[in-house]
């Protein structure tokens, strides 16, 4: 082969595997069977414990409370922000129609 001409990929040693063979190799599952069972057993145990067996604790009760009950002054701050946002929206709308 001459140095001035480009090398042909299909005729080179780099082209040893077809695209179809590469796709089949990717689709094969090389994980051991024990790994799959271990994953499913662990996931099932986790879901059964946290979804069914676990009892409610103080943190769960605290999380379920309304945020306005937990944080003092939050309701007033939200009302101020909502009022200000409402006024700003009305002003923008009036400016656009003028």
Shape type: flat
Integer-rounded radius of gyration: 32 Å
Unreliable spans: none
The share of residues in helices is: 55-70%
The helix tally amounts to 5
Percent of residues in beta strands?
under 5%
Main pleated sheet: none
Mean residue pLDDT: 83
- Regarding quaternary structure, what we see is single chain
**Termini gap:** 78 Å
- The total strand number stands at 0
Following the backbone from N to C, one meets helices and strands in this order, namely: HHHHH
Counting helices, strands and paired strands, the structural category is mainly alpha
Task: Name the descriptors.
single chain, 98 residues, mainly alpha, 5 helices
Describe the overall structure.
The protein has 98 residues and is mainly alpha-helical. It has a domain at 30-97. It is 66% helix and 0% strand. The mean pLDDT is 83.
Question: Short summary of the structure?
Answer:
The chain has 98 residues and is mostly helical.
List the helices and strands and how they pair.
Elements: H1 19-27, H2 33-53, H3 58-64, H4 67-70, H5 74-97
């Amino acid at each position: 082969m001459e140095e001035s001409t480009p090398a042909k990929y299909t005729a080179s040693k780099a082209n040893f595997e077809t695209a179809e063979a590469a796709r089949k190799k990717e689709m094969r599952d090389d994980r051991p069977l024990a790994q799959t069972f271990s994953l499913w057993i662990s996931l099932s145990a986790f879901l059964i414990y946290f979804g069914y067996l676990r009892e409610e604790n103080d943190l769960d009760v605290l999380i379920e409370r309304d945020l306005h009950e937990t944080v003092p002054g939050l309701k007033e701050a939200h009302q101020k922000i909502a009022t200000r946002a409402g006024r700003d929206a009305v002003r923008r709308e009036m400016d656009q129609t003028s």
